[in-house]
Design brief:
The structure is a single chain. This protein is an alpha/beta fold and 296 residues long. It has three domains: 81 residues, Winged helix-like DNA-binding domain superfamily/Winged helix DNA-binding domain (Arc Repressor Mutant, subunit A), CATH 1.10.10; 100 residues, D-Maltodextrin-Binding Protein, domain 2 (3-Layer(aba) Sandwich), CATH 3.40.190.10; 105 residues, Periplasmic binding protein-like II (D-Maltodextrin-Binding Protein, domain 2, 3-Layer(aba) Sandwich), CATH 3.40.190. The protein has nine helices and eleven strands. The strands form two sheets. Strands 1, 2, 3, 4, 5, 8, 9, 10 and 11 form a nine-stranded mixed beta sheet that branches. A two-stranded parallel sheet has the order 6-7. Helix 7 links the parallel strand 6 and strand 7. Helix 2 packs across helix 3.
Length: 296
């Protein structure tokens, strides 16, 4: 039994397919299949249901998969500590970010980081919050850049930016020429929103519901750009994060209005596992990002 066996086992559990699991581990399918069977023989217990055409784990197999994930996470942390790079801005770093942050924040900061820290090798991954949290727990990601939500509370969080949410309305809307709008004016209005799984959905709708607005149940967007296009087409109004808003007050059929009383906002943070040896690196990176946003 060795570390690679654990990696094969976890990969098979994630992909539920021998060929895809083998490709993820950069080995041939016979190699992975043979090592799994060898592991079963060594442990003296069946990990898979051989009679099924699908990849189905036995109860013992599922338990060992979870333990293998923990072992691999501990090995990763051990390796990181041994590398003695935790206090420097060099080496690889795997960063996860949510779809309502990444496309707007990353173009602002990534070129600067690459210029100022050329020895820092960044690997970037975009996914929804629940997926990123799971990958951070398993050690697949080093840190996350996302909006602070309940799911991130178990991690250490470094504040990056208190991001206002801006009201977006069609240019020909009665509010189209306004610079500012009291949120209480939304009472009785119907607002467009993102679909389930986006943390911004609950955050934005929370402010709208508090103001007496209701959600348009006929449509749920998959992205902020879809929301923007629906507003431009005159299908409704919505709240968009400031980083996703252009500098112009009106552009491409959409007018952007500062919302007040209260000002809707979300807190962007950099989250990482407690006990990570890269704490100094994360602190330096968070400070750098926060300063870059203030300058933008």
């Amino acid at each position: 039994m060795n570390i690679r066996d654990f990696e094969y086992l976890v990969s098979l559990a994630e992909h539920k397919h021998f060929r895809k699991a083998a490709e993820a581990c950069f080995v041939s399918q016979p190699t992975l299949s043979g090592q799994i069977r060898k592991l079963e023989d060594e442990l003296g217990t069946a990990l898979l249901e051989r009679s099924s055409r699908k990849v189905l784990f036995t109860d013992a197999g599922l338990l060992l998969v979870e333990q293998a994930k923990k072992v691999l996470a501990e090995i990763k942390q051990f390796t990181e500590m041994a590398s003695a790079q935790g206090d420097s801005m060099q080496g690889p770093i795997h960063i996860g970010f949510i779809p309502t942050v990444g496309p707007y924040l990353m173009p602002l900061i990534v070129p600067k980081i690459k210029h100022d820290f050329p020895d820092l090798e960044m690997f970037l991954y975009e996914a929804q919050t629940h997926q990123l949290v799971s990958q951070l727990e398993e050690g697949k990601l080093d840190c996350l850049i996302l909006a602070a939500v309940k799911e991130t509370e178990p991690f250490n969080e470094l504040d990056l930016y208190e991001e206002p949410l801006v009201l977006a309305v069609p240019e020909n809307h009665r509010w189209g020429g306004l610079e500012q709008l009291d949120m209480q004016e939304l009472q009785g209005s119907t607002v467009l929103s993102l679909g389930d799984g986006h943390c911004l959905r609950d955050q934005a709708l929370g402010f709208c519901f508090a103001s007496g607005a209701v959600e348009d149940q006929r449509f749920k967007a998959t992205s902020l750009e879809t929301l923007r296009n629906m507003v431009s087409a005159g299908s409704g109004i919505t709240l968009l994060p400031e980083l996703a808003v252009p500098q112009e007050k009106s552009k491409d059929g959409v007018s952007y209005i500062e919302a007040v009383n209260p000002q809707p906002c979300r807190k962007l943070v950099l989250a990482y596992r407690p006990g990570s040896p890269f704490k100094p690196r994360f602190e330096a990176l968070a400070k750098y990002i926060a300063n870059s946003l203030q300058e933008s």
